[in-house]
């Protein structure tokens, strides 16, 4: 009984929660980021400010927020901001501070991936062309000229953000920053200078005193206190985890699709497949998932790297023009709502996994106070599977994860896209939650003290 009332309260609270970060302290533990003393499960979406126009920013961010996104993640584009050494450009599509302020105005958080090498299918990976004329420079290694310019630009950006009061520690929306980018892919090529560069980059970043944590993606040896995070399509299966029990499990790039090259096939990744892997990551202790991209946008002019199409990640939840792409946008919105509903037991419960069959398993988060959440996974790609979970028989669709916010009732299944393109989202959401909400009403009603007494009386001989 208490249990059901509790869920009703969670629904209401989740509905009115806002993401204001007034002078918030951002830390972390082995479970999640901690903002103002509260652990958080966060959904994040990548939107790159130079890949749309300032006129589009407000509406893109609003649609991301409506889709259940809590954080907007962006790279910083060095070669646009410093076209000549010491000459800076932060105007128009390059107005980073304005973009971050728009995120703040809509009550969302921001993750700033400074790099400053960013890859991002961007010309020269974001490095300015003039850099290669610097005498004795070797990129992205323990090389004094490179480190000088890297530190110079990183400091410029951090100081700019600080001067505008944009870090969460100052009351701004930025809760995370990234230094370098997928460096481990090339680290070995630099022999012993690779690891020493990683240590230098982490130390340099941390000494900038942003007041919020730093991450390094795909960098399993990220030095403390920098958090190593996962990039990929299936981080629930591939991520070996943070490199310290005191760091949370975070996914900085979950590819919603893939970039395309001229002459290449259009890459399609289904809403069901994305939802499956996000749910699995959360079930396996993940607490931060970023969609790369949530809105890809346009590679204007000669911004993109060789062969990359003008249209960037058009198959994302918001298409190139910022229009909602269904069923991806709606299906992920429902997934976010289902997981948000479970966030208290997820963040405070003890996780265990139980085998339910050869290809079926359950991940259960159990709170001392009775809260319980289950993720039932069917890894069988071809067949439905009927499993017995806590004495209840439940049918699982092929290659799917069912979410049970009370360990009894399924409110979401990753393979069940409960929508058609024409139906509006509100209707679709009801279609997933209808049974659950009805149950709440029935259960709460069935257990009121008066009725209980009545029931008790009628049962008496
Ligand atoms: C960055 O380098 C420029 C010269 O290119 C210099 O004027 C500026 O002071 C340097 N800034 C930092 C923070 O080192
Ligand atoms: C998740 O965290 C729990 C501790 O609450 C730990 O026992 C378990 O092994 C972790 N599971 C995975 C898949 O990392
Ligand atoms: C639980 O998860 C661990 C780690 O993935 C795995 O080694 C173990 O076999 C799982 N146990 C069951 C009962 O599925
Ligand atoms: C699963 O389905 C395949 C056909 O898709 C069938 O060949 C196989 O026998 C089924 N397996 C089980 C365990 O029912
Ligand atoms: C799985 O079950 C659903 C509904 O119960 C049904 O529509 C579907 O055809 C089944 N799929 C397979 C592969 O048996
Ligand atoms: C599960 O069902 C069995 C037999 O139907 C019963 O003996 C057992 O107590 C039940 N367990 C729970 C946890 O309800
Ligand atoms: C298209 C692509 O590069 N996919 C990669 C996504 O990430 C997984 C694991 O990190 C790789 O195995 C895939 O090749």
TrEMBL record:
It comes from the Eukaryota. Keywords: Apoplast, Glycoprotein, Glycosidase, Hydrolase, Secreted, Signal. The keyword Signal applies. Residues 1-23 form the signal peptide. One of its GO terms (cellular component) is apoplast. One of its GO terms (biological process) is plant-type cell wall modification. PROSITE patterns: GLYCOSYL_HYDROL_F35. This is beta-galactosidase.
